[in-house]
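INFO  loader      accepted 1 record
INFO  loader      residues=171
INFO  predictor   begin
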Amino acid sequence: MMFQRSNVPLQDELLEICRNTFNTHVPMEGMTGKGLQTDFRKTECRFIQRAKRVGAPQPRGIQLMEEWINDNGYPDYTPEVLQIARYHVGHFYKWHTDGAGRGYRKLSMSCLLNDPSEFDGGEFQCRVLGQKTTIELDKDYPLLFMSDLEHQVLPVMRGMRDSLVVWFLEK
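INFO  predictor   done
INFO  writer      dumping tokens
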């Protein structure tokens, strides 16, 4: 499986938690594996982090995301972090992989939090064996893909594109 469009939406409670971060969390510039590179990635991000202390309860968003991925064919996976990204006009993320070569990320997910009619541009593209493919994303329905799949988000031309990005680890 290089990528798979889910026919099961994320839970309403999880979606509400993620959308609410635009009101409750301070935005930060989107980073790459090499730090801040605004010529490579321009996004505004908020995060829901895992609890670091062993045995500590996980934030509700992390719990719900783990339940969803486990119930949808990946019982041995857990989310590393929830990244809620907002792409304003002109924002983009060039070709990249999600931690490829490091091996700890097993699966990636991208899910639109708003309707595609609210923005122009911002297409999600992947590249397999040199073949570029645009994948249409639907609000609330995740796209799952291998973390070593090369992908990008094209510049947003109108409106704002909101998405939830999650990287999964083995439990």
